[in-house]
Each structure stands twice: as structure tokens, then as C-alpha cells.
Write a structure and sequence with these properties.
The protein has 14 helices and six strands. The chain is mainly alpha-helical. Among the domains are: 103-186, no CATH class; 200-336, no CATH class. Strands 1-2 form a two-stranded antiparallel sheet. The termini are far apart.
Length: 343
């Protein structure tokens, strides 16, 4: 290689970050760069140079021409990027070319309802909870024709999972779409592959009630079996979470549901209405969906929560009432026990 060739290689290496510039010292803070849609490649190079992310607009332009030649169908993509001055020009170019934009992450736990999801997204700074709730009342049948008809809202079909979404696309509609798409990819095939007497809406509704009742994984199948048996025999489910959902409340060991609340008229009150609720009451996870699709046979007709996550299952009403009394006594005893006392 001649002298001129060496000097040209050295300049290109320095300009593209293959060797460090003389003034580089230590770790540098990341730079957030927003590229609006339609920004020309040369302007991106100017912005990168001004931000101290590359050393030469000329090198960027040459690299861009080579990239256009190599991948004529591609192009630099709009979005917000997290870039580092320690990245080389080719690394930065590849990131923008591939659209590796800054993403926001959020997690929706199993068993959450629309209200809980909306409040969590609001707390994360995405948008107002009311805007999300309003968007869940729009049923996108044109994009998801498998959704049951005449749904008042999307409760139950917003699949619980951890999601990453580009920051530029964070809207209620975009988040709803990604959650429905996850349901379509994960849950819907389970239903379509099975032979079930439940409609899609009935299946998801039953699974949503099971999800709210089941705390211990080992009890999930038994809880689904009890509910299924009661459905078959026309016995009201008597599920506390359905009453709570209808009234918009949440009971605690210290403040359980009252007799008046359990007797309050509501289409979601499964103490006074036989059958399933009109819609799901939460977002069920895959485990609850699977056990609800074909619940096993069971000898039990009743169960009551111990408030530690487990339940007492009973065959008869007398056994059930005795279990309820024992649990109430235990809760009362714990409430009156002096603070700091030990057995």
C-alpha cells in the first residue's frame, strides 16, 4: 500500500470510528436522537455529526451510498434512537437502517382488569387512563374478526404479558393492538385446536373467573372443575371476584364482602345469577385458559378461600359452611391477637 493509500485508509478508519480520535477519553453518555419521518440521509448525517456521534458527514454520505447500492429496497427509518459516541459509524448506520428504535417496556400481570391496566399505563406516563378505557370500548373486528360479536369492551382479550413498543407508537390503540395480537398468537390457537362446548366468549369468561380465584397453581384445575360442574348443574357459581367486579370494589380479610353486597343486583353477581358473567372480568393467562377449556371431573361443589392463597374444597353445603366458619374464626382471632405476640 502506498503512502496515499495508507493515509486514505487511516482517514476512513478514523472517520468511521475504527480507530479512536486523539481526544477520546473514557465512557461517554448515550445520546437520544429523534429522526422524523422523511428525513433525508444527508440530514441524518449532519444531525449525527452535530451531536458528536460521527466525525464526518462525508464518510456518512459515502457509507449511505454504498448501503443504498447494497440494499436498494431498504432505507433509514424514522424514530427515536439511543446512540453512543463509542459506536462506529457502520454500527450507528446499521441501527438506524434496521429501525432499532428506543422502546418502552410494560408488563400486564395475569388477572388484571381493564381499569388496572389503564391506571398502570397512566402511571408509566403513556397517556390518560380514561383514554385507554375509551379505546377498549372500540371493537376492531376488521383487524381481529375472531373477536366475539356484540362485545361492549375488550375485557379478557387483552393478553397479559411483558411488551416492548417503540416510543413513537405509544397510543391506546397501538397498545391494544399489540395485546390483541398476542392473544391471537398465543391463546387463540389453543382454543381452535381443541374440541370444546364453550364458545370463545364463554371460554375466556370462565378462564377470567378462574384466574381471579386461583392463587396456588396446584389448585387451578380443581377450581375450574368446580365451576364447570356448577355450570353443568345450573348452580350459581358464587364467585366473589364477579361481585367485586360488578361493584368496582376489592375485598380484604379485614373487609370481606357483606351480605348486602352479595345480594346487590348486577349482571356480574354470580351469587344471584346462574351461569357465566356477560363478559370476562380479567385478563386470564395461558394456564387458566388451558384448564378452563376442558376442566376435569370433580367430586366437589364448593370451595372457600383461606386468605393465604389456598382454598378448602367441600362436597356438601354443610361441609362448606363449616369451613367458612373455621376460616372466619381464624381471621377474627388474628385480628384480636395483640401486636408482637408469639404462639
Amino acid at each position: 500500500m502506498g503512502v496515499a493509500g495508507w493515509q486514505g485508509w487511516a482517514w476512513w478508519s478514523w472517520a468511521t470510528g475504527a480507530i479512536a480520535p486523539p481526544t477520546e477519553t473514557g465512557e461517554l453518555s448515550p445520546v437520544y436522537l429523534q429522526i422524523p419521518a422523511g428525513t433525508p440521509g444527508q440530514q441524518i448525517g449532519s444531525d449525527l455529526e452535530a451531536a458528536g456521534l460521527i466525525r464526518s458527514r462525508l464518510a456518512w454520505n459515502l457509507w449511505s451510498r454504498w448501503q443504498d447500492f447494497r440494499s436498494p429496497e431498504g432505507g433509514y427509518q424514522a424514530g427515536t434512537y439511543v446512540l453512543s459516541p463509542q459506536q462506529s459509524l457502520p454500527e450507528i448506520a446499521a441501527q438506524i437502517w434496521n429501525g432499532e428504535v428506543l422502546e418502552a417496556s410494560f408488563t400486564i400481570p395475569e388477572g388484571w382488569n381493564r381499569q388496572q391496566i389503564a391506571l398502570a399505563l397512566e402511571e408509566q406516563g403513556f397517556f390518560a387512563a380514561a383514554d385507554f378505557l375509551a379505546a377498549t370500548q372500540q371493537i376492531p373486528l376488521e383487524d381481529y374478526p375472531w373477536l366475539p360479536s356484540n362485545l361492549p369492551h375488550l375485557e379478557g382479550f387483552l393478553y397479559p404479558d411483558t411488551y416492548q413498543i417503540p416510543t413513537e407508537t405509544i397510543t391506546p390503540e397501538a397498545i391494544i393492538k399489540v395485546m390483541l395480537s398476542r392473544f391471537e398468537a398465543v391463546a387463540l390457537p389453543v382454543y381452535e385446536a381443541a374440541s370444546s362446548d364453550f364458545s370463545l366468549l364463554e371460554w375466556v369468561t370462565l378462564a377470567s373467573i378462574v384466574e381471579k380465584e386461583a392463587v396456588i397453581a396446584e389448585e387451578r384445575s380443581e377450581i375450574a372443575a368446580v365451576f364447570n360442574r356448577r355450570l353443568e348443574e345450573g348452580i350459581p357459581l358464587g364467585a366473589d371476584p364477579t361481585v367485586e367486579y360488578g361493584l368496582g370494589i376489592r375485598q380484604t380479610p379485614e373487609n370481606p364482602l357483606t351480605y348486602a353486597q352479595v345480594q346487590t343486583e348486577s349482571p356480574y353477581n354470580t351469587y344471584i345469577n346462574a351461569g357465566l358473567t356477560p363478559t370476562p372480568i380479567s385478563s386470564p393467562g395461558l394456564a387458566s385458559l388451558e384448564v378452563s377449556l376442558a376442566p376435569p371431573e370433580t367430586e366437589y361443589l364448593y370451595f372457600v378461600a383461606r386468605y393465604d392463597g389456598t382454598h378448602v374444597f367441600s362436597q356438601t353445603l354443610a361441609e362448606h359452611e363449616a369451613a367458612q366458619a373455621l376460616i372466619r374464626d381464624a381471621v377474627d382471632a388474628a385480628a384480636t391477637e395483640p401486636a408482637g405476640s408469639e404462639e
